[in-house]
Amino acid sequence: MDRYRPIPLEFVRLPADQQARRAAEFAAWMRRRRSVRQFSSEPVPAGVIDQAIAAAASAPSGANRQPWTFVVVRDPAVKRRIREAAEAEERESYERRMPDDWLEALAPLGTDWHKPFLDVAPVLIVVFRQDYGLATGPGGRERHIKHYYVMESVGIAVGVLLAALHWAGLATLTHTPSPMGFLAEILNRPKNEKPYLLIPVGYPAPGAVVPDIPRKTLAEVRITV
């Protein structure tokens, strides 16, 4: 077992005015982020995607297990397979699985089972959660490594990823076709990994639009005690 080894903390304390300015600038930038469903096919720099994933992988995780995998999909044939499988599941959901109240909640967003963004967007990032780790034990036998707070850990990493991509000037969408098991099959992921989120990434198409929906105010979401 590895023992605790302390190292010096690298931390830069900012002047109060700089803290306030940075906080306001970041909040203003993030308020401009919208879920985009109309993408350009224009390619995006691979290095930008890699740096955003590197930022996401720096997120805290339960017992530092880092239970995530980020699969970057650029191959048009693979994206087409993902779109076809996702649309099949989504059509079943919209036409048979979703109760009326769910459909009513989605109505202001203007969504349906058609998902053209899945093969138009130049990049898909498929986030997988690792429910447990895999290692080789004595005699070459497979050994499972317990992971802790997997859903919470991956959720934090995804939040960092979305912020990093937006900060880099890219548009994103969080997409969760249900069920998502086809992603593990198409992308040939090991049995300990389960699909968590599908994120199309790119630039908005010319003339792209988004739904006119409200955001809760700070007073509605912040409670001070």
Structure description:
The strands form two sheets. The chain has a four-stranded antiparallel sheet. Helix 2 (46-56) runs antiparallel to helix 6 (150-167). The protein has one domain (36-208): NADH Oxidase (3-Layer(aba) Sandwich). Strand 3 and strand 4 form a beta hairpin. The protein is α+β, with helices and mostly antiparallel strands and 225 residues long. The longest helix has 22 residues, at 76-97. It has helices at 16-31, 46-56, 76-97, 100-106, 117-120, 150-167, 181-186, 218-221, and strands at residues 68-73, 123-130, 132-136, 142-146, 171-172, 193-202.
In short:
Helices cover about 40% and strands about 15% of the residues. It has about 220 residues and is of the alpha+beta class. The chain starts with 15 loop residues before the first helix and ends with a helix.
